[in-house]
Amino acid sequence: MELKQIRCTTCGESLSIETSLKEITCQACGNAFLMTQGIHLNSKSDDEIDTLKNLRIQLKRSVERQDIQSIEYHALEILKIIPDDYVSQYFFSYASYNLNKPKAFYEFLELDIASTQEDKRYVIEHMKAYADIKEYEKLHQYVDRVYPEMSEVLTQTLNQRIQQEDHYSVIDRDVFICHRSTDNKKALKVLNALEADGHTCWISSRNLRPDDSINYWSNIEEAIENCRVFLVISSQSAMLSKDVQKELQLANKMNKAKIEYKIDESVHTTLFKRSFDGVKWIEAIKGDNIETLQERVLDALEEVETKQQPKQTKTKASLENTKGDDQSAKLKSLLIKLENQMEIELFDQAKNTIKLIEELDHKNEYAWWSKLALEYKCSTYEELFNRIRQENSFSLEHKILTSEDYRIMNKIFNDSDKVIELNNLIEATKLERRKQERDRIVERNLKEKEEIKAVLIVFAAILILILIIFLVGLI
After folding, report:
1. What is 251-312 written as a DSSP string?
2. By C-alpha distance, which of 21, 409, 34, 149 is closest to 7?
3. pLDDT of residue 467 exceeding 70
4. Given the DSSP bridges, would you call strands 32-34 and 14-18 parallel, antiparallel or unpaired?
5. Which helix (H) or strand (E) holds 201?
6. 42 conformational bin, left if phi > 0, alpha if psi -120 to 50, beta if neither
7. Dist. CA 236–CA 224, nearest whole Å
8. Rounded CA gap, 395 and 356, in Å?
9. C-alpha span between 454 and 451 (Å, rounded)
10. How far is the C-alpha of 436 from the C-alpha of 424, rounded, in Å?
11. In this predicted model, what pLDDT tens digit does every residue of 303-328 receive, in sequence order?
12. 3-state class (DSSP) for residue 101
């Protein structure tokens, strides 16, 4: 019986295996791998094998986090060590697809790559949960070809995902339900009651995409913006929740109609006092009080409806005025959105919002200031000013002074108080830096003089000592 020395492609363990086997299960980690890959890995150095083990761990973590760029990087690094690794081939193609390079994914679905059944199951499970449902037909064809036993399960899961996509749609809804996860039971009861009463609702446990942590806050902001009434399930834990606080602040900035559904006797925090000042809460401490809630929601929706402008027969002139009003309203909405995005540091989304504002008003000063602040990862122009004061850096000032945005702002807003303040601040920091440089030169000169003086004193002492020795010798 001939034995072959191979290495496990997951943990790197060295194994002696019969050459007749095609698939091996590692005794150390329990994972299955192909004999051909184990032989190939055995020719690699220990450093490469250790690197592979670490890359496997990092790829798994990246997949769990849905960090697409990290998935692409780690999969590609594994393929440099084992070029025909099935799992890494899949994840590299999956990441490429999500980075707007779908060709690699389509090619993967056409390939016939040797792999273990365990790896095929793992990849198809991931496809079921995360592959783009637009590729429904291609996914089916692939699974039918490589693992037909999972075809029916794939169909069921993809159909469920298609239905679920309706919940993730960015559409107008009547009520945004804000709550702490610990109050989920109450929130779901409220959701069912309002939807039974004919209202459309948004709730995070159902409508927030679970695998999109990168866009978590932008999705919530969009949902609040697209709802007409903001309903809070109010409790002590909700009032202390950072997420609930942030959602309420967003609703305040968007001037949303708000309703508080109070489920315990906790005292209001300052934010809740200010947010619901003059608005009576619905008490649901001893009972659910659902009928009162339904009535208040209906009243709030009718009030929102009456605030909207009634439709009128429009002349050419009135159409032009309406167009201007619509643009003005859209601009106002975008500016509020930009302010919110800057405050919670959604910088990528803020860049896109600035572009939309510039299309409507290319001389909007707030948009220009936000644009300049974004270049230096600052949320506000005040934060940018503070950074200039604190850093007192020539390179930072030079970067600002030579930037295209700063040049245009000086031209458009040359009489703006903020532009004047920025120019004065940069000039003041220049003067301060020059003063500091002069002080350093004076200090250095004084230090050099002191050092020369010390040397002269030592030199004089040595001369005196030599002279004394000489005189003693004469005596």
Report:
1. HHHTT-EEEEEE-S-PPPPHHHHHHTTT-PPEE-SSS--HHHHHHHHHHHHHHHHHHSPPP-
2. 34
3. yes
4. unpaired
5. strand 201-203
6. alpha
7. 22
8. 31
9. 5
10. 18
11. 998 876 554 444 555 545 555 566 77
12. coil
* 125-139, 172-186, 311-325, 431-445: least confidently modelled range: 311-325
Which H helix or E strand runs over 73?
helix 68-81
pLDDT at position 313 is 47
What is the reported pTM? 0.47
- Give the Cα separation of 312 and 209 in Å (integer): 40
Q: What percent of the chain is predicted at pLDDT more than 90? A: 48
Q: What is the DSSP string of 321-335?
A: HHHHHHHHHHHHHHH
| Measured distance CA(432)–CA(401) in Å, rounded | 17
Q: Give me the amino acid identity at 466.
A: I
Element (H, E) at 143: helix 136-146
Q: What type of residue sits at position 352?
A: N
Encoded tokens for 84: 């025909």
**388 to each of 108, 399, 430, how far by Cα in Å?**
51, 11, 11
DSSP 134: G
Length of the chain: 475
Region of poorest pLDDT, from 278-287, 315-324, 435-444: 315-324
DSSP result, 362-404: TT-HHHHHHHHHHHTT-SSHHHHHHHHHHH--HHHHHHHHH-H
Residue type, 303: E
pLDDT, position 312: 47
pLDDT in tens, 4-30: 889 999 999 999 888 788 899 998 899
Contacts within 8 Å (CB) and 24+ apart, 146-153: 146/112, 146/120, 147/117, 147/120, 147/121, 150/121, 150/124, 153/128
